Amino acid sequence: MGEALRRPTSTDVSNPRLYQDDTWRPLFAQLRCDDPVHYCEASAYGPYWSVTRYDDIFAVELDHQNYSSASELGGIQVADQPKGQERPSFIRMDPPGHTAQRRTVAPIVAPSNLANFDALIRKRTSAVLDALPRNETFDWAERVSVDLTNMMLATLFDFPSEDRAKLTWWSDVAIANIDSPDAVVHSEAERTAELIKMGEAFRKLWDARVDAPPTFDLISMLAHSPATRNLDAREFIGTIGLLIVGGNDTTRNSMSAGLMALCENPEQFELLRGRPELIPNLVSETIRYHTPVLHMRRTARNDVELAGRQIKKGDKVVMWYISGNRDEDKIDRADEFIIDRAKPRQHLAFGAGIHRCVGDRLAEQQLRILWEEVLARDLRFQLMGPPQRLYSNFIRGIRSLPVRIVN
Q1: Positive or negative, the Cα torsion across 258, 264, 265, 267?
Q2: pLDDT tens, 249-265?
Q3: Tens digit of pLDDT for each residue in 134-145?
Q4: In terms of DSSP bridges, do strands 67-68 and 381-383 run parallel, antiparallel, or are they unpaired?
Q5: Long-range Cβ contact pairs of 329-334 (< 8 A, separation 24 or more)
């Protein structure tokens, strides 16, 4: 049965051009309707299964006995990590190793600590918004989204603020598709060389903190935890890279996507102005509607059946969050941007289960404060051109968003 379903006439949704050109919707709509667990026999990344419906994605997320995130089996992207250049981290681990390392960093985003961040985030957000030009086109992604997120990252790591642009750079290096003409790196060797520089910079911070009393920052937490204090070189780079990307890409791209969605749906912007209590809903709806992480991949540990399909041990299983978040059988009017939904947090953009994004509440907090401060200033915006989107099948990135403040 399983072999019969592996048809050569398959749909490949792994092409990064689909997301850079924003042409992915009809392909996923067809898969959800006709073949929701779909086998793609040939792609640039080899054969893989596409899981496209909300409930099926959720089932895979929760079943880490059958579906592995392990680096040695290929990791978490449809593209395998190059052999010999793997960068393990707890997102690329299964329990029990995953559990111990995740627990090491989780306290920094515990609710009590998020409350401590509130005033700092608000002060920075206010300063960034007040410095924006009026009646003049500027790049929202650069001036707001990037600046606010790398300031927060620097705080989490206790990284030198004057060098915080390096954090954005290393995040871009870590997730870059090397086949893109405008990629920040153009080979795995070049990527590795840049990430080694990142590791060297963070190793200096580590060495300064490992023998000092513990402090409440990510480097000190990692250096003092039995689960992470003895990371080898590649795992050290992988873990730092994970924390940088995780603390950067969801938030910065959602900051840009939220403004874009509100400008493209002006009735929703007016609703927000009249009902500012909807800001938390807006944040969740933005994250669902945009879906900053397009997919996560697992590798089948065993032969397993999913939605009537026979998946073989060793197969790639790709959960397309971008599709699950548009599943009309689960989310009413899923292709529409609606900030007063009854269940705004019903989305897959943060994942689920043991690998749910550890910093989800911090991301929501930063976005909430941004929109509170925008409304406090009654800022009104006009899009001045299309966004420049990232060439990637993993991160739904917005590299540039030209806008103008018109009041």
Answers
A1: positive
A2: 889 999 999 999 999 99
A3: 989 999 999 999
A4: unpaired
A5: 329/32, 329/53, 329/54, 330/53, 330/54, 330/55, 331/54, 331/288
Question: What are the Cα distances from residue 38, in Å, to 32, 48, 198?
Answer: 9, 8, 38
DSSP per residue, 169-217: HHHHHHH--TTSTT-S--SHHHHHHHHHHHHHHHHHHHHHHHTSPP-SS
Asked if 243 and 218 touch (Cβ cutoff 8 Å), the reply is: yes
- In this structure, the number of other CB atoms found within 10 A of the CB of residue 282 comes to 25
- Contact in structure between 294 and 394 (CB atoms under 8 Å): yes
Burial of 163 (0-12, 13-18, 19+ CB in 10 A): exposed
- 8 Å CB contact between 296 and 319: yes
Q: Give CA separation, 250 vs 195, 276, 314, 359, 361, in Å.
A: 20, 23, 29, 10, 12
Are 206 and 212 contacting, i.e. CB atoms less than 8 angstroms apart?
Answer: no
Whether 317 contacts 60, CB under 8 Å: yes
Q: How many angstroms separate the Cα of 293 from the Cα of each of 251, 254, 369?
A: 11, 10, 22
Structure-token pair, residue 143: 């001036």
The DSSP bridge pattern shows strands 402-405 and 138-139 to be antiparallel
Residues 217 and 249: beta-carbon distance below 8 Å: no
| C-alpha–C-alpha distance, residues 118 and 107, integer Å | 16
Rg over CA atoms, the chain: 21
- The string of pLDDT tens digits covering residues 197-226 is 999 999 999 999 999 999 999 999 999 999
Mean pLDDT for 11-29 is 97
**Cα 366 from Cα 377, distance rounded (Å):** 17
Instruction: Catalogue all structural domains in the chain, each as residue range(s) with its CATH number.
Output: 16-405 (1.10.630.10)
Residues 276 and 372 sit within 8 Å (Cβ to Cβ): yes
- The neighbour count for residue 65, using CB atoms within 10 Å, is 11
Over range 108-118, report the average pLDDT.
Answer: 89
Nearest 10 degrees: CA dihedral of 123, 127, 129, 133?
180
- Six-digit token string for 155: 């705080």
Q: Write out the H or E segment, with its range, that includes residue 61.
A: helix 54-62
The gap from C-alpha 138 to its chain's centroid, in whole angstroms, comes to 25
pTM confidence score: 0.93
Map tokens 């007040």 to a residue: 130
Partner residues linked to 299 by β-bridges: 68, 316
